[in-house]
């Protein structure tokens, strides 16, 4: 049976005038006494034909050629068995769904773009210190709202150099002046006659920068020739590791071989969108070389000058070409901070406060 035509069932005239059913009228359709076919008979015949058609076509409605379609139920409310109106409604629903999905996709893409920035800047730094494997302390430990000290006025000299760091948006990198700079000393291998030298050197750089130094006592931590762990909660508690000062030797630190009497430097820490800050510095002093220097007249002052030189490296000063400055790479007999050294240290004492770190 082909595609049904509803008009085929709705013709009620009999142009042939005989006993045969009118053209297009199925045989056996019940009629009234006047020969007209009542409406209920038309509907009965229509439903009968529809049932026969669905049986023949495996349950599909006329005009429905989609594979797997399994619509149930008869003709309702005079609707089109071909389902045209229903397909239009489904088409509109599909458009709405497409719009909703497109909007959701846009929101998802925007979220992916923004979420890492928000997460890394505002959430992750606060959550990270709480994790068991964290390599940073809780933020703001011992941080004040104002600097703890004031650097002296600059000498105006330009004979100093600051370490070059990767953040080109930042003029220089320094310790946070709004919190104390803790330091510890490993006393092993300290030469006789060096008692108090470290404390004297620390006091001189503290006066030159305005930074507040706090001595936390002795430690057993060995020097680190490479990158030092800047956060050691098991050893120093939940704060940045203090500056480590050790008396060592070329056998422990090969970089001290030759004419190098000491090494100094710091690690860098940063919170997203905040300035770089120096933390966890260390000074490594060649103890055997110091023993030799102490044998000369004025040797103690020269050893103290070496400690000051390395502490200045810890705070961010680099070598200069001017031989009259203590930060000259070669030892020229200078035992005190010169004007260029003082100008550089005063600048480093005025670094930014970063309580978020």
UniProtKB/TrEMBL annotation:
Q: Where is the composition biased (Basic and acidic residues)?
A: 1-14
* Region span, Disordered: 1-40, 55-94
Question: Which keywords, in A-to-Z order, does the entry hold?
Answer: Hydrolase, Membrane, Metal-binding, Protease, Transmembrane, Transmembrane helix, Zinc
Q: Where is the composition biased (Low complexity)?
A: 15-28
GO BP term, example: proteolysis
Q: What's a single GO CC term here?
A: extracellular matrix
Q: Which organism is it from?
A: Arthrobacter subterraneus
Q: Which domain of life is it from?
A: Bacteria
Against Pfam families, the record matches this protein to:
Peptidase_M10
Where in the sequence does UniProt note compositional bias of the Basic residues kind? 85-94
- Entry GO MF terms: metalloendopeptidase activity; zinc ion binding
InterPro entries in UniProt: MetalloPept_cat_dom_sf, Pept_M10_metallopeptidase
Q: Residue spans with biased composition (Gly residues)?
A: 74-84
Check the record and name the SUPFAM superfamilies matching this protein. Answer: Metalloproteases ('zincins'), catalytic domain
Give the protein name, as stated in the record.
Matrixin
- The Peptidase M10 metallopeptidase domain sits at 301-348
Q: Which residues cross the membrane?
A: 98-119
């Amino acid at each position: 049976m082909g595609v049904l035509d509803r008009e085929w069932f709705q013709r009620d005239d009999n142009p042939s005038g005989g006993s045969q059913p009118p053209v297009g009228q199925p045989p056996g359709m019940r009629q009234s006494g006047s020969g007209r076919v009542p409406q209920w008979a038309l509907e009965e015949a229509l439903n009968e034909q529809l049932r026969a058609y669905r049986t023949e076509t495996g349950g599909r409605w006329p005009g429905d050629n989609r594979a797997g379609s399994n619509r149930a139920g008869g003709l309702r409310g005079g609707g089109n068995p071909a389902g045209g109106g229903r397909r239009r409604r489904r088409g509109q629903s599909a458009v709405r769904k497409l719009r909703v999905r497109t909007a959701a996709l846009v929101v998802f893409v925007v979220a992916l773009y923004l979420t890492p920035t928000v997460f890394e800047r505002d959430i992750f730094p606060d959550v990270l210190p709480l994790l068991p494997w964290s390599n940073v302390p809780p933020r703001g430990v011992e941080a004040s709202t104002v600097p703890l000290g004031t650097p002296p006025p600059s000498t105006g000299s330009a004979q100093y150099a600051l370490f070059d760091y990767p953040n080109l948006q930042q003029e220089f990198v320094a310790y946070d002046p709004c919190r104390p700079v803790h330091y510890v000393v490993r006393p092993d291998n300290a030469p006789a006659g060096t008692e108090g030298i470290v404390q004297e050197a620390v006091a001189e750089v503290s006066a030159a920068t305005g930074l507040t130094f706090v001595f936390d006592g002795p430690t057993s931590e060995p020097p680190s020739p490479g990158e030092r762990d800047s956060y050691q909660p098991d050893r120093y508690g939940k704060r940045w590791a203090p500056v480590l000062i050790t008396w060592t030797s070329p056998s422990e630190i090969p970089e001290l071989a030759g004419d190098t009497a000491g090494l100094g430097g710091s690690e860098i820490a940063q919170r997203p969108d905040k300035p770089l800050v120096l933390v966890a510095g260390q000074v490594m002093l060649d103890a055997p070389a110091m023993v030799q220097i102490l044998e000369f007249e004025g040797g103690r002052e020269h050893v103290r000058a070496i400690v000051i030189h390395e502490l200045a490296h810890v705070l961010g000063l680099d070598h200069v070409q001017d031989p009259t400055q203590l930060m000259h790479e070669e030892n020229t007999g200078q035992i005190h901070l010169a004007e260029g050294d003082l100008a550089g240290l005063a600048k480093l004492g005025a670094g930014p406060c970063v309580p978020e770190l």
